[in-house]
Automatic annotation (TrEMBL):
Glycosyl hydrolase family 4 C-terminal domain span: 194-417
Superkingdom of origin: Bacteria
Key words of the record: Glycosidase, Hydrolase, Manganese, Metal-binding, NAD
Cofactor annotation comment: Binds 1 NAD(+) per subunit.
Metal-binding listed as a keyword: yes
Keyword Hydrolase annotated: yes
Necessary cofactors: NAD(+)
Protein name listed in UniProt: 6-phospho-alpha-glucosidase
Amino acid sequence: MKKFSIVIAGGGSTYTPGIVMMLLDNLDRFPIKTLKLYDNDEERQAALGKALDIVLKEKAPDIEFSYTTDPEEAFTNVDFCFAHIRTGKYKMRELDEKIPLKHGVVGQETCGPGGIAYGLRSIGDIIELIDIMEKYSPDCWMLNYSNPAAIVAEACRILRPNSRVLNICDMPVGTLRRMSQIIGKTPEDLDVRYFGLNHFGWWTSVKDKEGHEYLPEIRDYVSKHGYLTQIEVDTQHMDQSWQETHKKAKDLLAVEPRFLPNTYLKYYLYPDYVVKVEGSDPDYTRANEVMDGREKEVFSAAKTIVEKGTSEGSEFSIGSHATFIVDLARAIAFNTHERMVMIVENNGAIANFDDNAVVEVPCIVSSDGPEPLSQGNIPEFERALMYQQVTVEKLAVQAYIEGSYQKLWQALILSKTIPSAKVAKEILDDLIEANKEYWPELT
Ligand SMILES: NC(=O)c1ccc[n+]([C@@H]2O[C@H](COP(=O)([O-])OP(=O)(O)OC[C@H]3O[C@@H](n4cnc5c(N)ncnc54)[C@H](O)[C@@H]3O)[C@@H](O)[C@H]2O)c1
Ligand SMILES: O=P(O)(O)OC[C@H]1O[C@H](O[C@H]2[C@H](O)[C@@H](O)[C@@H](O)O[C@@H]2CO)[C@H](O)[C@@H](O)[C@@H]1O
Ligand SMILES: [Mn+2]
C-alpha cells in the first residue's frame, strides 16, 4: 500500500497529539511515510513536538517525524495537510466570548459576534496556508478543521475557488456517535440525511444498512434527554458546559419536532437562555475552561513524556474526533466513495436554497473530492433561518475583502444572536479595538 506524507498545520494545537495517536492507530488503513508539524509559534509547537518525537520513536520508528516553523520545509513533498490553526490563540477566543457577553449577547467560539470576529482573523491565515501548500506541493489536499468553518469555507469559495481545500466539522460525526449509542448501534452501521450550514443544521433520516429508519426512536430519546448519553463518548467534551449543550437539544427538538437538531442551534434559538439562565459567566467562559482543562492536560502530558524520556505510563489519548480525518483522507487517497457530511457549495443539493451558498450536506467522497447528495426541498422555517445565517457569513467575508465597516455591521445586525443595530454597533466597535492586530482596516 502507498505510504503518505502529512503535514499538520497548527502543530501546537491541543488536538495534535490526539490526531497523531489516531494516525498511529490506523497505520494499517492509512500508512505514513513522513509526518511533519508546522506552526508559527515555535515554543508551543516544540513542547508537543519533543514529546511526539519520543512517542513516534517508540511506536512507529519507520515514520520520518519532524517539526518546523519553516513553511517550505513543512509543505515540501506532502500529500495531505491536516490544518487546525487558531489565529490569535485562546487569548483572542477569550475576547470573542467575553466582549459580546459584556453587551448581554451570546459569546461563543463560532456562533454570533465571537464567530464573526474569529472569522475575520482566520481568513488571511488560511488563504496564506493554501498558497504555501500550492507553492510547495501543488497536488496536496488540505483537510481544514480551522474554525469558524462556515466563514472560512465561504472565504475559500470566493478567494481560492479551485484549491484542493476541504473544510470540515466533526459535530455531525460526534452527534451521530451519540445517536448510535441511543439505539445500540455504531456510527458505521448508519447512513444519514442532513441539511444545513456548518454548526446550523438538522438530520432528516438516520437509517441502518437494511433501510430501517431510527429517527422516531432517537427523537423520542432526545425529547426527554437531549443527546446526553450514559457512556462517555468523548474524553474531551464531557465538561459541564458541553453536557448543558447536549441536554439543550431537547428544547431545539421542540421547535422542529420532525428533525434532529445540531446542538449549535441553541445559540440562535435560545440566546436569552444561554446568556441569562445557563450561566454564561462573563468572567469565566469556555476559553477559560479549555485553558484550565484540555490545554493544561495536553501540555502537562507532553512535559511528563519529555521529562521521563518515554511515553510509557503517560500516553496521549487517541482523539475521538480525529477518526473523521483518516476516513476522509482515505476516501481521497483510495477513492473509497465514502458517504460523509461535508461543507460544500450548495449547487442544487438543497433544491430550494441558493446555489452559491456554502451548506453542510451528506456527500460521496472520492479522489475528486466531495459530490453532494441531493436533500430535496427544505421547509420554510429552516430555509428562512438558514438564509439569514448564510447572509451573515457572506457579509462577513465581503466585509473582510472590501474592508467594509458597513457590511460587517450589517452582518452583526443580521445575526439572530444580536437584538438591535445599536447593540451590534457597540459590539463591533469593541471587537475592532480588540482585533487591531489581526483584522484588515475597516472604513
Ligand atoms: N471544525 C471542527 O469541527 C473543529 C473541531 C475541533 C477543533 N477545531 C478547530 O481546530 C483549531 C485548533 O483548536 P485548538 O483548541 O487546539 O487551538 P490551539 O490554540 O491549541 O491550537 C492552534 C494552533 O495554531 C497555531 N497557529 C495559529 N496561527 C497559525 C498560522 N497562521 N500558521 C500555523 N499555525 C498557526 C497556534 O500557534 C496554535 O499552536 C481551532 O480552529 C478550532 O476551532 C475545529
Ligand atoms: O470548546 P472546545 O474547544 O472544547 O470545542 C469546540 C469544538 O467543538 C465541536 O467539536 C467537538 C464535537 O462536537 C464533539 O462531538 C467531539 O467529537 O469533539 C469535537 C472537538 O474535538 C465543534 O465541531 C468544533 O467546531 C469546535 O471547535
Ligand atoms: Mn465544528
